[in-house]
Amino acid sequence: MKPNDANGKLPTSERPFRVLVISGSDRRQYNCPGVDSKARTLMLRMAERLPQEWEIDYEDLGNVYARARIQSCNACVSTSMALCVWPCNCYEKNHSSEPDLMWDLDMYSRLDLADAWAIVGPINWYAPTSNLKLMFDRLVCMNGGNPDENLIEHKDAELAKKLEHSPEWEDLSVNHLEGRTAAFFCYGDGGGDELDREGRPKILRHKEYFDPEKEPFENDRDSYAPLVWQCRYGGVEVPDHLWRYVEFGKDQKYSDNQAEDMATKTDVFRDFDEWADGFAAFVTRKGKVEPGKYRAYGYEAPGHLKEDLKAKWREIKTGLGYPPEGSSPAKQEELGLNEDLTLTPKKSEGEKLRE
């Protein structure tokens, strides 16, 4: 059935089971690729195949011209775990200056509402797609993020450092989506028709630069290992048999390996259906997941105009050489590190070098 977000208010025993299926390819026919992805085909196929008494939510993360993109993680955790807010408050919904697809699509809420996630995507350059990597980077907040931004006045780094060392922090820092299940179906083409008989790129002039015996993975499914282990690290179960890689299109031109070719010239649907059925069977046995103490579903970000003005004043003072006393910027300035006193932080280092 179609998802009904209002069911998130019901007791777990009374609401339907819910899954979220994600197409992680960067391609959409409404951008320069001009063609929809194989991941989208598989996502829609899975949505039709899963038990229809479930709430089946799905989303395509593919790039669309003029639509917001998933903004990158600002690595707040590296300053203080307490500065990383759950759900992420580095960005917000419908923002004109920094539009963010994670918020515009309500992904935090939808991930929270689902008992299980099924993620489908290609391998791009020995790694997950950039959009999937961005999404999971922005999910760092699910692993111990601060559920109360008021305690740090929205984004006060010094307050966050104090909170991280306080007795109350232990009760606040929890895995907010723990208990769910995630499954990954990734696929690749073995380099298409780019490789020679030895496994080196045909157009490579410096053959000695590339040793095919030393490529990063023996099993290409390991290209998705960072996402799998991030899930497991945060208490999201990824059963090994639901982490699958399938290869097709090897020795073919990329233009001959589209969704229509996958559908008519390969056995990928058979492999995918087996994986999808295994997913359905596993999560059925496991059952519904109780929501966490601090939910993304139903969350409404507080206003922070006063806090933004305070942060801007901190930025100006720091740029003039007067950072908060005892702060990391103050200590770094004292040690002569980073050379970052400026009132024009948008100016690039390359531009400054050429002045």
Describe the structure.
This protein has helices at 38-49, 101-104, 107-113, 130-137, 157-164, 169-172, 225-233, 259-265, 268-286, 305-319, 328-334, 349-353; strands at residues 18-23, 55-60, 116-122, 181-188, 243-247. The protein folds into 2 domains: 14-302, Flavodoxin domain (Rossmann fold), CATH 3.40.50.360; 304-354, no CATH class. With 355 residues, the chain is an alpha/beta fold. 30% of the residues lie in helices and 9% in strands. The radius of gyration is 23 Å and the shape is globular. The model has no long low-confidence stretch (mean pLDDT 96). It has a 5-stranded parallel beta sheet with strand order 2-1-3-4-5, with helices on both faces.
| Superfamily (CATH H level) name of the largest domain | Flavodoxin domain
- Give a short account of the largest sheet: 5 strands, parallel
Q: In the residues, how many domains can be counted?
A: 2
**General form:** globular
Average pLDDT number: 96
Keywords:
355 residues, alpha/beta, Rossmann fold, 5-stranded parallel beta sheet, 30% helix, 9% strand, globular
Entry summary:
With 355 residues, the chain is of the alpha/beta class. It is built from 12 helices and 5 strands. Helices cover 30% and strands 9% of the residues.
Helices and strands in order, then pairings?
Elements: E1 18-23, H1 38-49, E2 55-60, H2 101-104, H3 107-113, E3 116-122, H4 130-137, H5 157-164, H6 169-172, E4 181-188, H7 225-233, E5 243-247, H8 259-265, H9 268-286, H10 305-319, H11 328-334, H12 349-353
Parallel strand pairs: 1-2, 1-3, 3-4, 4-5
